[in-house]
Amino acid sequence: MEITMRIAGEDAAIRALDVVAGHAGDLRRPLADMGERLVRRIAKRLSGAVLKENTGRLKGSLMHKETTDTLEVSAGGGKQVDYAAIHHFGGVIRPKKKKFLTIPFPGGPADKPVPLRAADFEDTFVAKGIIFQRKKKGKGVRIIPVFILKKSVTMPARPYMYVEDPDVEYLTESISDFIAGAWK
After folding, report:
1. Rounded distance, CA 101 to CA 80, Å?
2. Which of 46, 96, 147, 178 could form a disulfide with 131 if both were Cys (CB 3.0 to 4.6 A apart)?
3. What is the per-residue pLDDT across 74-87, written as a single tens digit (0 to 9) for each?
4. What is the DSSP letter of 17?
């Protein structure tokens, strides 16, 4: 799923564009500059509290596209990063094909940057909603929790795709400078 943010939808940006619409033809250069700025700022947000960065796929999916008078910044890129929207908007995650979600047990063998699947583990059993693995250790057997089974998980909204007031001010100044000929 893809998330799209259009600068053209921001009231302050629209007013700034309306004022100069008669004076400017093609605003692609300042809009591309703004797109790069927003992608950097959003990528920085993804490194913090929004998402524990594991693979960098979501950050790598950030893109911007501009026309003569609009700027579009997106994350997810279709199926490339299908969790982009759930991180931004929040929601309930349910299993698609099985009865339960398998959540890697914190600190367990499946809790890796790219988690393993339950099928990757041999000699497992389920007890009290947890998948355990039997591991032979010397003459004994060690029992290790591997996954927690859940029917659903509710993800809180952790918005990262937004425009702040300094961004609108930067865009307004960039467009003004561009129209005034300060951009060579």
Report:
1. 21
2. 147
3. 888 766 788 888 88
4. H
